[in-house]
C-alpha cells in the first residue's frame, strides 16, 4: 500500500471517531472554582500560590487525543500549573484534509469559523484533557507573526497591514466574531486561566495609543461576553524609557507595558524575554525581570514572565540565574518557559533551539525543581 493511501485511510478513521463527539457551541460546565487574581499572585484551584508553567503552541493542532493526554499528564506530574496554547489558526485557503485550521478567510467567500473535527473540536480535546489533569490554559486569539495565519491572514482578506489592522472596523469585526465563538465555547470551563488578546502584538512606529485603545476595547468586549475569566494582553512587555536606552526601552514597537497595565479590564501583565533576538546579553534577563516586577508592584497587579528562552547548548547555565531572580528577588506571579517539548506518537515535538524536552537531564533543574519551589513559595 502506498504511504498516501495509508494516511488517507487513517484520516478517514480518525474523522469518524472524532465526529462522534457532540459539536456543542458551549462546552459542558464544570463546577470547580475559576482562577482569579489575589493581590500580586493568583488563586488557582482555591489556593493562593505562585506557579511555573510553559508554552505549547502546537497542542491544539495535534490530531491524536493520546498525544494531548500525554502532554497534560506530564504537565501535572511536573507540577506545572498553567499552559499557554495558540487559540487561533487562520487560513486564507482551505488546507488538505487532516490539517487543522480554526478560521477560514478565503478571498471571495464569507469568512467562517471551523467547528468541525479538524477545527475547534481539536481545541475541545485540549480543554477536556486540561480539566481532567487540573491544568489551566491561557488561550490567545491572534498572532502578530505570520505563523498560523495571524494579522497577516486578516490582511490578505481585508486589505489591512501590520499597523492599520488595529483600527480597521472590518478586520476588528471579524476578530471579535472569532473571539466570541471561542469564548462562548469555553466560558463555563474552569480550565481557562485567562483569555489573551494576541501573541506579541506590536504596532511598529505607531503611537502607543493605538495598541492601548485596541487592548482596552478588546478586553472590555471579552469581559462583556465572559466576566468570570481573567483577560490579559500577551505583549512582550516593552518599556518606554529607562534601562540604558537600548531597543527594549525605546517604545519603537508601539507598546507601553505600564500604560496598558493600567487598563481596568486587563487582570494581569505579561512580558517575554528574548535577549538574543533583541540584541541584549543573556545576563540582562534578570534586570528585565526586576523592572517588570517593580511596575507590577506600583500598579498593584500580578505580572507573569510568559515566555523566555535561549538558544545556547546549555539552557541551564543561562536560565537558572533568571529563575533564581524570579524566585528569590521578586513577586513575579509565575514564569512560563518556551518551549515545552516531548516525544509523541509522531516523534519529537518542535525544537526551535529553545526547547527543553520532558525527561532529559536539563528538565530536572529547569522544570521539576523550579516548579516545585514555585508552588511551595510562601505568599506574603
Ligand atoms: C499601512 O497602511 C497605512 C495606510 O493605510 C500606512 O500609513 C502605513 O504606513 C502602513 N503600514 C505598514 C506597516 O506598511
Ligand atoms: C550546564 O550548566 C550548568 C550550570 O552552570 C552546569 O552545572 C552543567 O554542568 C552544564 N552542563 C554541561 C553539559 O556543560
Ligand atoms: C486609564 C489610565 O489609567 N490611563 C493611564 C495610562 O498610563 C498613562 C501613562 O503612561 C497615563 O497618562 C494614563 O492616564
Textual characterization of the structure:
- This protein is an alpha/beta fold and 380 residues long.
- The protein has a single domain (50-376), classed as TIM Barrel (Alpha-Beta Barrel).
- Helix content is 37%, strand content 16%.
- The chain has helices spanning 3-19, 65-77, 120-133, 150-158, 169-186, 208-225, 257-261, 284-299, 315-329, 363-376; strands at residues 36-38, 41-44, 47-49, 51-55, 82-86, 90-91, 103-104, 112-113, 136-140, 192-196, 230-232, 269-273, 303-308, 334-337, 340-341, 343-344, 347-348, 356-357.
- It has an eight-stranded parallel sheet with strand order 11-10-9-5-4-14-13-12.
- Strand 7 (103-104) and strand 8 form a beta hairpin.
- Helix 5 runs parallel beside helix 6, helix 8 (284-299) packs parallel to helix 9 and helix 9 packs parallel to helix 10 (363-376).
- It starts with a helix and ends with a helix.
- One 2-acetamido-2-deoxy-beta-D-glucopyranose is lined by residues 256, 258-259, 262.
Low-confidence stretches: 1-24
Q: What is the subunit arrangement here?
A: single chain
Alpha carbon gap, first and last residue: 64 Å
User: What small molecules accompany the polymer chains?
Assistant: 2-acetamido-2-deoxy-beta-D-glucopyranose
Give the CATH topology: TIM Barrel
Number of structural units classed as domains: 1
CATH architecture: Alpha-Beta Barrel
Strand content: 15-25%
Shape: globular
Total helix count? 10
Backbone CA Rg? 20 Å
Order of helices and strands: HEEEEHEEEEHEHHEHEHEHEHEEEEEH
Mean pLDDT, to the nearest integer, reads: 92
Q: How many β-strand runs?
A: 18
Strand neighbour order, sheet with most strands: 11-10-9-5-4-14-13-12
